[in-house]
Structure to design on (119 residues):
C-alpha cells in the first residue's frame, strides 16, 4: 500500500520531466519578462562623483553642526583637550573650517556628478 505525501501541495515531478521544465528561472525562454540586476537598468545611473560628493556633504555638514553646537554653544567637549586651554579655540575653528571645506568640495562633486548624468 502506497503512503500519501505528508503535504498534498508537495508532489514529486514526473520521471520524464527535465530540470528546465521544472525551473523557469534556469530557462531564459520560459520567462515572460527578463529579470535584470538594478545596476543594468537604464533609468539608474551610477556615479563615483555623486557617491563621494554625497559622503563629503554628509561628513562636512555633521562636522559643522557638531562643531558649532557641541564645541562652541554647549562646550560639551573640544577637539584637542590635551593642549593648553587657551589653544582649544584654534583647534575648534580648524575643525569647523575642515567641515566647511568638506561640505563645499562635496557640493562641487555632486554638481559635477549630476552634469555627467544628464550628458
Amino acid at each position: 500500500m502506497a503512503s500519501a505525501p505528508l503535504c498534498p501541495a508537495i508532489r514529486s515531478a514526473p520521471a520524464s520531466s527535465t530540470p528546465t521544465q521544472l525551473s523557469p528561472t534556469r530557462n531564459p525562454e520560459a520567462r515572460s519578462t527578463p529579470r535584470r540586476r538594478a545596476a543594468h537598468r537604464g533609468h539608474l545611473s551610477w556615479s563615483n562623483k555623486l557617491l563621494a560628493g554625497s559622503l563629503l556633504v554628509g561628513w562636512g555638514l555633521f562636522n559643522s553642526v557638531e562643531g558649532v553646537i557641541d564645541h562652541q554653544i554647549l562646550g560639551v567637549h573640544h577637539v584637542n583637550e590635551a593642549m593648553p586651554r587657551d589653544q582649544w579655540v584654534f583647534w575648534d575653528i580648524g575643525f569647523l573650517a575642515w567641515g566647511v571645506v568638506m561640505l563645499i568640495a562635496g557640493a562641487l562633486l555632486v554638481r559635477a556628478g549630476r552634469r555627467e548624468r544628464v550628458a
Remarks:
- The first helix runs from residue 19 to 22.
